[in-house]
Amino acid sequence: MKILLKIRYDGGAYCGFQAQPNGVSVQGVLTEAFSGMFGFPCNITGCSRTDSGVHALSFCASVEPKEEILRDTQWCRVPVGKIHRAVNVLLPDDISVVAAAEVPDDFHPRYNVVQKTYEYHILRTPARDPFLHGRAFHAPRRIPEEGIALMRQTAGIFVGKHDFSGYMAAGSKITDAVRTVCAAEVEEKDELLIYRVSADGFLYNMVRIMAGTLLDCAYGRLTPDDADRALRTGDRTAAGFTAPGHGLYLCRVEYDRPVDWLCE
Amino acid sequence: MKILLKIRYDGGAYCGFQAQPNGVSVQGVLTEAFSGMFGFPCNITGCSRTDSGVHALSFCASVEPKEEILRDTQWCRVPVGKIHRAVNVLLPDDISVVAAAEVPDDFHPRYNVVQKTYEYHILRTPARDPFLHGRAFHAPRRIPEEGIALMRQTAGIFVGKHDFSGYMAAGSKITDAVRTVCAAEVEEKDELLIYRVSADGFLYNMVRIMAGTLLDCAYGRLTPDDADRALRTGDRTAAGFTAPGHGLYLCRVEYDRPVDWLCE
After folding, report:
1. Minimum CA–CA partner of B92 in chain A
2. What spatial distance separates the first Cα and last Cα of chain B, rounded to whole Å?
3. Whole-angstrom Cα distance, residue B138 to residue B212?
C-alpha cells in the first residue's frame, strides 16, 4: 500500500520539486514532514521534476515507508481522508497537501501518468502587480491584441504528435523526443494571459521554451513560421528564449486509472 | 498642482496605510521613495486608512512637496505618465504605483471621495491554499450552499441608508454613523467567495464586521434577523465577529470629478 498525495505549492522558495545537494526542495520538505508525522523515514516520489521557482496547482507524489519491512504492515495510521489536515500542520505555508488516495504498491506517480497539463502565466502589462510578484512573467511592454493572435497561432503549431527536439533544453540526454500535445490555448483573464498546454509528456524546459517562443512571436522577434521551422528541423536556435520558471504552473496530472481522492 | 497616484499593495508586511510610531506603513514607504526620487521631502495623503494586513487593488493617494514654497514651482520633473515606472524602481515588490494624474491644489484624496468599494475574500474550504496565504480568510470548515444563500441574504440587509453604529468597532469616536451602502453582493469564483460592498463611506472596521457577520450567518451562529437587529438597534454585540484584515481589499475609489489617469 502506498499513499498518493495531491499537493499545491508556491515554488518561489525552492530549488524545484526534486531534492538537490545544495538547496531546499519541495521533496525534502515533504520527506521531513511525513517522516516526522509517521515516526519512521519515508520515501516521497514525485510525478515530475519541476524547475527552481516553478509552481504547482496540483502535483502528485506518493509517500511510503523507506524500510521494506514496514511496507507490509498497516503503516499509515492516519485515515486517508485526514492526511491533509494532519500533515499541513507540519508543512510551511507555501506547500499544502490538498487530497490523498490509497494506491496499490505497483502504482508509480510518474510512470503511470498518461497526461499532464501546464500553464504559463504572463502579465500582459509592464506595470508591476504585487499580487503576481514571482507568480507570473511580467511583460516588458504591453502585448498588443495582434500579439495575442500570433501567440494563439503559434500555440496551435505545437498540437499533434511531433519530435520536440527543437523545444528541449540544449544538452538534454533524451533520445526519443516525440511527444503528443493534445491541447493548447491562450486564455485572457483580465490582464493575465494563460498559455495552457496538455501532452502525454514534456521534455526538459519544453513548456518554458514554448512560452518564450510565444512571447517572441507576440513581440515580432520571431514569426509562427520560425516556430514551425524549429519544430520540423529540431533546431533549438530557431525557437524562442526559455521563459523564466516563476511563470510556470503544473496544473493537472491524469493517470491510467481512476484515483479515489479523499480530503475529508 | 498635486499628483494623485493609484496604488496597488499587498498589505501583509505593513501596519496599514497610515504612518504609525511603531511599524512600517505603506505611507512611510511611499514618502521615502518619492522624497528620494524628487530630492526634497514630500507629503503623501491617502484616501483612507487601512488596517494592518489589509490589501489594496486600487488605493488613491496624493503626493506633493512638503515645503509650501516648492508647491508653486513646476516641482514634478517626471512626465506624469512615467511616474509609475520611475518610482516603482524605488519601491518594494509588494507596493506598486499603477497610474498617476495631475489634480488641482484643492483636490483632497479623502474629502473628494464619493464612493468606495471593498472586497472581502473568503476561501470556502479549510484546505490551505499556498497562493492565498495571507490574502484570504480561510474558512475553518467548508461553507455549504445554504450558507452562501444566508450570506447573500445578510449582505442584502446592509443595502440602503442606515445608521451603522452596530457595525463599527467599539470605542470609535464617530458621532454620525449614517452611511449609504449602494451595492453588495457575494460572488463565487471557484472556491473563493468574494463579498463586495460599495458605500459613500465606511466606519472603522465596518467591512470586517459585516464580513464576520456574513460568516457567522453562514455557519448558523447568527441569523439574518440578528444582523438586521444589530443594524436597527446599533448593538455591536448583536453583530458578528470582526473578520481578520488579511481578507480585506480596497478595490475602487470614485471621486466627485473625473480624474485623467495616465500610465504610459
Report:
1. A130
2. 20
3. 12
Closest CA to A137 of A94, A192, A217, A207: A192
B82 has a chain A CB within 8 A of its CB:
no
Please give the grid coordinates belonging to residue A35: 517522516
B36: left (phi over 0), alpha (psi -120 to 50) or beta: alpha
Q: What does pLDDT average to over chain B?
A: 95
Secondary structure of A149-191 as H, E, C letters: HHHHHHHHHCCEEEECHHHCCCCCCCCCCEEEEEEEEEEEECC
- Rounded distance, CA A75 to CA A3, Å? 10
Helix (H) or strand (E) holding B214: helix B206-218
Cβ atoms of B158 and B232 within 8 Å: the answer is: no
* Cα separation, A158 vs A186, whole angstroms: 13
pLDDT tens, position by position, B130-164:
999 999 999 999 999 999 999 999 999 999 999 99
Q: Give the number of other Cβ atoms within 10 Å of residue B137's Cβ.
A: 22
Mind telling me how many Å the CA of B159 is from chain A's nearest CA?
28
Closest residue in B to A130 (Cα–Cα): B94
Assess A52–B contact: CB distance below 8 Å, yes or no: no
Question: Which of B10, B84, B126 shows the shortest C-beta gap to A131?
Answer: B10
Q: Is A261 exposed, middle or buried (0-12, 13-18, 19+ CB in 10 A)?
A: middle
Cβ atoms < 10 Å from Cβ of B178? 12
Query: For residue A108, with 0-12 CB atoms within 10 Å meaning exposed, 13-18 middle and 19 or more buried, which class applies?
Result: middle
Give the pLDDT confidence of A124-150 residue by residue, as tens digits: 988 789 999 999 999 999 999 999 999
Which residue type does B52 have?
S
Candidates A98, A133, A142; nearest CB to B127: A98
Residues in A touching B142 (Cβ below 8 Å) = 264
The CA radius of gyration of chain A, in Å to the nearest whole number, is 20
Contact B97, B84 (CB under 8 A): yes
| Mutation choice for A interface testing from B128, B132, B138, B246 by most A CBs within 10 A | B128
Active-site annotation holds for A51: yes
β-pair partners for A99? A6
| Nearest Cα to Cα of residue B114 among B6, B258, B255, B260 | B255
Instruction: Give the separation between CA A151 and CA A153, rounded to whole angstroms.
Output: 5
